[in-house]
Amino acid sequence: MINKILVSACLMGFKVRYNGSEKAKMVAQLVRWQQEQRLVIHCPELAAGLPIPRPPAEIVSADGKDVMQERARIIEDTGRDVTEHYQLAAWLALRTAQEAGCTAALLTDGSPTCGSQFIYDGSFSGQRKPSMGVAASLLIEHGIAVFSDTQVAELVAWIEERENRIPINDGVVG
Hints:
- The chain is globular.
- By secondary structure, it is of the alpha/beta class.
- Helix 1 (28-35) links the parallel strand 1 (4-8) and strand 2 (39-42).
- The protein has six helices and ten strands, in the order E-H-E-H-E-H-E-H-E-E-E-H-E-H-E-E.
- The protein has a four-stranded parallel beta sheet, with helices on both faces.
- The two termini are 14 Å apart.
- Residues 169-174 have low confidence and may be disordered.
- Helix 4 packs across helix 5 (134-141).
């Protein structure tokens, strides 16, 4: 079975980040997966109707799981509360992944939506903290493996392990 991968649109060269930029990581493996039609390219924030460009937003004193459980907020650097937009973005990412049959996601780190290894601390000072954004935490909660844009090699290994298992008798040998 081919594993499908939800991938942040900005990693594929689309200029959808908050500042209108992209974060292309078109390594050979992603090109191959795109040719194999494994990739489901998606920008949760754009899908939720957020504009490009948009003010930077950070999760205040918490993480994505807290936001999804209504225990924390996402605020723009203007002071505007955009929590509901980012919660919608997370649900749309999950729905897109589930409808496409994705088993994994490759997301842009640092984002209040897609961060999986780190997010910014909510002070708008450039300080990072190990944590997850709203979409990354929701995807994991629903059984979709999440990898950051710095973990392409780990994702490759994860996919290869899942797809190279050979059934023997009643068990599975990898």
